[in-house]
Amino acid sequence: MVAFTAPPKFPDLHDDWPLVRAALAEADIDGVPVVWSDPSADWPSFDLVVANGAWDNIHDPDAFLAWVAAREREGTPMVNSPATLRWNLDKRYLRELEAAGVPIVPTGWVEPEGEAELAEADVALPDGEVVVKPSISGGGHRTARYRAHEHGDARAHVRSLVASGRTAMIQPYQTSVDELGELGLVFLDGEYSHAIHKDPMIRRGAGPLDSLIDNQVVCAAEASGDQIALGRRAVVAAEDLLGPTTYARVDIVERAGGEPALLELELLDPVLFFAVVPERTAAFTEAVRRRLEGASR
């Protein structure tokens, strides 16, 4: 029996679940969604836990990390691995990928430093439009876009994040997103599977919100050779650090010069968008089957 983690708000998971459930049944694999934070869940009774549905982990990262540690202690097989989940929870992983040669969207980091209050003058911003968000974030949580004349608001956003004990990320807004959107490349067992296009989610003037998911518009897409190559570089760099992955989504944007750059590498809880590309559901089921067989040896 395979458990697929779910958040309390969506115990039956995303639109992908009916497709995944049907593909699992076709492969004679029993699968069930289980709310990851449910204290009554009997995790050791499962042959494998697929962790990519724990979408609310950002709201209580300490509880999520404790959950991961508990599964690791009891020896419950899990994908992606506990080490990968811990590493991917905080977007500071981008620094390691950049050090490994993966081109990322330029990012400044402002971290909490003891009890000292961050002064507005200490918050350096790039010229033009910027994006501010916490390093532990998902679905646009507390993410906002600021034009040049709104830099005072951007600095206030950074100071608020740091005052609450969170690391703030500052990035120049990639204007190509307004025209081209973002591209998400899904990798299964380390191999490229499919791509989706996302319309721009961060709206001007909205300020930091709890979520931007309501702004998400997704469709199937074709990735270029250069985009797939960047996605593969990101996944390989992570696997060199942490070992094999069962699932990954690589979100990329186009820089001003036309070259692709990594926005995020989602190895913890990415939606894989099988509802948009249903023909790839069987490939995911096959990846789960291989991990299930490996766990039983």
Q: What this model shows, in words?
A:
The protein has 297 residues and is of the alpha+beta class. It has two domains: 2-80 and 285-296, Rossmann fold (3-Layer(aba) Sandwich); 93-267, 2-Layer Sandwich (D-amino Acid Aminotransferase, Chain A, domain 1), CATH 3.30.470.20. Helices cover 31% and strands 22% of the residues. The protein is built from eight helices and 13 strands. A five-stranded antiparallel beta sheet has the order 11-10-9-12-13. A four-stranded parallel beta sheet has the order 2-1-3-4. A four-stranded antiparallel beta sheet has the order 5-8-6-7, with helices on one face. Helix 2 (61-74) packs antiparallel against helix 3. The longest helix is centred in the last third of the chain and has 18 residues, at 225-242. It is globular. 39% of the residues are buried. The model has no long low-confidence stretch (mean pLDDT 93).
Provide a brief overview of the structure.
The protein is an alpha+beta fold and about 300 residues long. Helix content is about 30%, strand content about 20%.
* Terminal Cα span: 15 Å
CATH architecture of the largest domain: 2-Layer Sandwich
Strand order, biggest sheet? 11-10-9-12-13
Give average pLDDT, whole number. 93
Give the helix/strand class.
alpha+beta
CATH class term of the largest domain: Alpha Beta
Tally of helical runs: 8
Q: How many β-strand runs?
A: 13
Please name the defining characteristics of this protein.
2 domains; 31% helix; 13 strands; globular; D-amino Acid Aminotransferase, Chain A, domain 1; alpha+beta; five-stranded antiparallel beta sheet; Rossmann fold
